[in-house]
């Protein structure tokens, strides 16, 4: 493998610079920066992607790429107060300090405010679980262990 080191490549007015051919791989050392002026295409990275984002991240193929994987997960995801779209119709939104999920489908429903100030009615904390049976709904107190059946009236 031959090596060429240059400080700068400057094309003449109206010309393009071509490096390699389709399928070639270029290695950029750690700490180096590649700046895409918006006209370059086909960038792929297999290393440090640190830096500042100056454009949208738009994949070239629909539903083909992941963010993280089962072994290497993304630690934090900071989003503005806009909407997170899941599939074609499901959304998760922020509304002040509330998270809005329309048509939430869940198994047991766990409610717990023991890690923050008490509720707005009597100032106490609790930890409860709603469970569904074939014909009944149940409410379990996760602190005392007491169980309640909710009386339902068919309408």
Principal-axis shape equals elongated
Provide the spatial order of strands within the biggest beta sheet.
4-5-6-7
Largest beta-sheet characterization: 4 strands, antiparallel
Q: Count of helical segments?
A: 0
Write a brief caption for the model:
The protein is mostly beta strands and 155 residues long. The chain is built from no helices and 7 strands.
Report on this structure.
It contains no helices and 7 strands. It is mainly β. It has a 4-stranded antiparallel sheet, with no helix packed on it. A 3-stranded antiparallel sheet has the order 1-2-3, with no helix packed on it. It is elongated and about 80 Å long. The N and C termini lie far apart (80 Å). The relative contact order is 0.06.
Please outline the helices and strands.
Elements: E1 83-86, E2 90-95, E3 98-101, E4 109-112, E5 127-132, E6 137-141, E7 147-150
Antiparallel strand pairs: 1-2, 2-3, 4-5, 5-6, 6-7
Task: Write out key terms for the chains shown.
mainly beta, four-stranded antiparallel sheet, three-stranded antiparallel sheet, 155 residues
């Amino acid at each position: 493998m031959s090596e060429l080191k240059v400080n700068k490549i400057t094309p003449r007015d109206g010309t393009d610079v071509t490096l390699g051919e389709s399928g070639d791989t270029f290695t950029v050392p750690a700490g180096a920066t590649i700046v895409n002026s918006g006209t370059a295409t086909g960038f792929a990275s297999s290393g440090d992607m640190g830096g500042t984002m100056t454009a949208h991240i738009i994949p070239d193929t629909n539903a083909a790429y992941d963010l993280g994987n089962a072994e290497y997960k993304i630690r934090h995801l900071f989003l503005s107060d806009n909407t997170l779209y899941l599939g074609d119709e499901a959304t998760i939104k922020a509304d002040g300090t509330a998270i809005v999920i329309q048509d939430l489908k869940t198994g047991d429903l766990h409610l717990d405010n023991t890690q923050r100030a008490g509720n707005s009615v009597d100032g106490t904390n609790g930890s409860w679980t709603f469970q569904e049976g074939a014909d009944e709904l149940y409410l379990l107190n996760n602190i005392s262990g007491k169980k309640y059946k909710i009386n339902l009236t068919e309408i």
